[in-house]
Specification:
The structure holds 2 protein chains of 2 kinds.
Chain A (H helix, E strand, L loop, with lengths): L1 E7 L8 H7 L5 E4 L4 H13 L7 H17 L2 E4 L6 H14 L6 E5 L7 H6 L20 E6 L4 H8 L4 E4 L6 H11 L6 H14 L27 E4 L5 E4 L10 H8 L9 E2 L4 E3 L4 E4 L5 E4 L2 E3 L4 E21 L3 H19 L5 E7 L14 H6 L2 E10 L2 H8 L4 H5 L4 E2 L9 E12 L6 E4 L8
Parallel strand pairs in A: 1-2, 2-3, 3-6, 4-6
Antiparallel strand pairs in A: 1-7, 4-19, 5-14, 7-8, 8-12, 9-10, 10-13, 11-12, 14-16, 14-17, 14-18, 15-16
Helix pairs in contact in A: 1-3, 3-4, 6-7, 7-8, 8-9
Chain B lengths: L1 E3 H4 E8 L2 E8 L5 H7 L2 H7 L8 E6 L4 E6 L20 H5 L3 E3 L5
The chains are: A alpha+beta, B alpha+beta.
């Protein structure tokens, strides 16, 4: 049995969780997930400003803190922190290791960044049709900023087999971070679909950090203990593909069939064929059962062959946006916020700005749930102590968005009464990236595993 | 008898591009049949009329007493583009729990 822990569910997650996972109980592998659709476009912006950027910088600080414990406990670290620049990430990690006087073998998995290969791949007949809309990428080609292939778990296993104690990947399937060490430890072959699928299900259960161990959990949330000291999830994996989801003893949070199920149904499509680079996992095939306190056992996962394509995540520039808000207080907070939104929209129209999208929401009343929440009754609306009017615009024309940002503050003096501007000044204009999911035949891209040789780092 | 989904189910929601996914889980295995019968894709589409501008697909996970819904074109362009306070649809899971269903009285 091997223990694989998650210590980071997204870039921006708790900086202490990785250290807690290594210190508060035995584990063999620590996996950290930094990448999301949103993240890649942020990394792209950073790389465009600085060629040594484009990876999750927070990861380097995490390595700095966790390295002595990793070495003392012989724990291996696997992270997709490389983002769009795994080599620069490794250079930063090796510098931190040298500063700690540590010899550590750091591997990268790259080859996933095909931004510079797009024209070559067009030439080979790849159209990168949008998986949602069917449109060919040519429609937005001149605006593409990044294109990354989701690789699977075998390159990670190869890096571990080569002796790496830290593996830094670019884009890969999130669950591959967890499946990789299973392949390495148990010698699973590329056609053992059921076992590979089991690793994917296990990875899915823990890849979002504490959301797999009682965080953001609706099932009787009030009774979930000690969220202030929540334990992040851990997989205890067996060579036959069965596994247990658990967390370190004495930590807060909760691991029950209900809490694990919530995470398993998170961000999936067709559950009979959850597609990954290594297999298709059948989320309707397995059984979950309590296995003692804070332990859930999963058995019977079935899988089927992987598809001949990799998924590609492409980001392209889609204009600019700005979002501002003001707060209206009782009495008639709801009606005033409605009026504020109406007045602002009318002023924008009168100025004649070239806007692609205009959107207002009433926070405190109906922003999150839309009309599923229904309009508040007149009685409730009249009693609301305050309502925040949040107003956003999007445009390909930056100047139009800039002009919009000057219309929020005037509302405070020239609109409905008992209003405050929330003190944030003018809203910031930001460039936005849109996301374009596509496929590429596997034979056109090859993962590149590169090992650093320990002992060559100058101290 | 009218019941609120909140009383018999829990949920979690997230995003894939401009598509929202909502996993709906029966609080007890015996409630799964009720979800299956009453929480149809058509009902869900109607429930999210102001949010979901595409189709709604439903998938069954009897092993987890759960249903998975995909709400296409429901995130104002997706997490990176959206002007919404909840650009990734994280709260649409609880929005579904507001649905009221009219079930036959239990025998």
């Amino acid at each position: 049995m091997i223990r694989i822990a998650n210590g980071q569910g997204f870039w921006g997650d708790s900086p202490d969780a990785p250290l807690d996972q290594v210190r508060r109980g035995p584990i063999d592998y620590l996996t950290l997930d930094y990448l999301a659709e949103v993240t890649m476009s942020i990394l792209q912006k950073q790389r465009s400003r600085d060629p040594e950027a484009g990876y999750a910088r927070d990861f380097v600080d995490v390595v700095d803190r966790v390295l002595p414990d990793l070495l003392a406990s012989n724990v291996s670290l696997i992270a997709n922190a490389g983002g769009l620049n795994p080599e620069a990430c490794r250079r930063a990690v090796l510098a931190v290791a040298a500063r700690n006087g540590a010899d550590v073998s750091v591997a990268t998995v790259s080859g996933d960044d095909i931004t510079q290969r797009l024209d070559e791949l067009f030439g080979r007949g790849v159209e990168f049709r949008n998986m949602d809309t069917g449109e060919p990428l040519a429609v937005v080609r001149d605006r593409v900023r990044s294109a990354s292939v989701y690789f699977g778990a075998f390159p990670i296993a190869e890096a571990l087999a080569g002796g790496a104690q830290i593996v830094i990947t670019g884009r890969c399937a999130d669950a591959a971070l967890v499946l990789g060490p299973m392949i390495h430890e148990f010698g699973w072959r590329p056609d053992e679909w059921n076992k590979l699928a089991a690793g994917i299900v296990a990875g899915h259960a823990i890849e979002c950090g504490a959301q797999g161990s009682g965080g953001n959990c609706q099932d009787d949330w009030r009774t979930i203990p000690d969220l202030e000291d929540i334990g992040y999830p851990i997989v205890e994996a067996e060579p036959d593909g069965s596994f247990v989801i658990t967390k370190h003893r004495g930590t807060g949070g909760r691991v029950t069939v209900a809490s694990v199920t919530e995470q398993l149904v998170y961000e999936i499509g067709d559950p009979r064929a959850y597609l990954t680079p290594d297999c298709a996992a059948d989320f309707t095939s397995f059984t979950l059962a309590a296995d003692g306190s804070e332990r859930v056992r999963c058995t019977g996962v079935q899988g089927s062959p992987a598809t001949p394509t990799y998924k590609v995540s492409i980001s392209y520039a889609a204009g600019y946006r700005a979002i501002g808000s003001v707060a209206y207080a009782w009495p008639d907070a709801y009606a005033k916020a409605q009026a504020g939104a109406r007045i602002l929209a009318a002023r924008l129209k009168r100025i004649g700005l070239e806007l692609d999208a205009v959107h207002s929401e009433l926070l405190g009343a109906s922003a999150c749930h839309g009309i599923a929440a229904a309009e508040p009754s007149p009685e409730l609306a009249a009693q609301l102590p305050e309502v925040v009017m949040r107003f956003g615009v999007r445009s390909k024309n930056r100047a139009a968005v800039e002009r919009f940002t000057k219309e929020i503050a005037p509302l405070v003096l020239s609109g409905p009464p008992s209003v405050t501007g929330l003190g944030a000044g003018r809203p910031k204009v930001e460039e936005v990236m849109a996301y374009w999911p596509a496929l590429i035949p596997k034979h056109l891209v090859t993962p590149v595993v590169s090992l650093s040789v320990p002992g060559l780092v100058s101290k | 008898m009218k019941i609120l989904l909140l009383d018999i189910a829990h949920s979690r929601s997230g995003d894939k591009g401009n598509t929202s996914n909502i996993g709906l889980i029966a609080r007890k295995p015996e409630f799964y049949g009720v979800l299956l019968k009453y929480v149809t894709p058509e009902r869900v589409k109607e429930h999210f009329a102001s949010v979901c501008h595409g189709k709604v697909e439903r998938f069954e996970l009897p092993n987890l007493s759960a249903l998975n819904f995909l709400l296409y074109d429901s995130l104002d362009g997706g997490g990176t583009l959206s002007l919404r306070a909840d650009p990734q649809g994280k709260t649409l899971g609880t929005a579904l729990l507001r649905m009221e269903i009219d079930v036959e009285d239990p025998q």
